[in-house]
Amino acid sequence: MEEMINSDLVKALRLEKSWSQEKLATASGLSLRTVQRAENSGTSSLETKLALSAALNIPAEKLMPISSKTPQNQNTVIYGYIGAGVG
C-alpha cells in the first residue's frame, strides 16, 4: 500500500548528513530508485518509510506529510526540526 511521506524532510535530513541518495539507499537497505521515488514523489510503502526513518534516526511519524501547512510553514518545521539537533 502506498503512503505519502514528507519528501522535503527526507531530502533535508539526507543533505544534513552530507549523504548522496546512493548512501541513503545503502544505509537504509533500499534501492537507489526507491530513495529517488520517495524524495521526488513523496510516495512510499510502509516498509520504505520505516527503513528511511531508521537510517535517518528519526521516528517514522516524523515522515508524515505536512499537508495542512503552507509551504512557507513547512520550511520552518523542517529546518526547526533539523536545528533542534544542532548544538
From TrEMBL:
Gene3D superfamilies: lambda repressor-like DNA-binding domains (1.10.260.40). GO terms for molecular function: DNA binding. Residues 10-63 form the HTH cro/C1-type domain. InterPro entries: Cro/C1-type_HTH, Lambda_DNA-bd_dom_sf. This is Helix-turn-helix family protein. It comes from Alteromonas macleodii.
